[in-house]
């Protein structure tokens, strides 16, 4: 009789340790998201040449119970154009504590602001330097590549994500 009571108590203890339906839903909602911000080398459809960026395949490296991947990369973008288009701000509004953001640019960030600004080129420098240009008839202060990345990372980190 004592053995039966001990077994029953053990099973009840185990059952109480199992997640309830509400806990299961909460756990699914807390699975971290890995956001990808980048150019064609990360983007779905790559740059339109029939290739795919690596970001499309990252989802296959994670169990959906461990992490999900949200690929926000867009072909032809630079850190500057991604910033100007508000795409970093959009992702910053989505991230939650525990999420990750992978920022991958550089492919389109080089070049010259003169004679014609392509809207993607960053100011040359290693941090605080700025350049002035006119893009599409609008005066723009252009930052350096590291400055765009640091500014984006600060936004994500402030929201609790890791960049």
From TrEMBL:
It comes from the Eukaryota. GO terms for molecular function: hydrolase activity, acting on ester bonds. Pfam families: Lipase_GDSL. Residues 1-17 form the signal peptide. Keywords: Hydrolase, Signal. Belongs to the 'GDSL' lipolytic enzyme family. This is GDSL-like Lipase/Acylhydrolase. It comes from Colletotrichum costaricense.
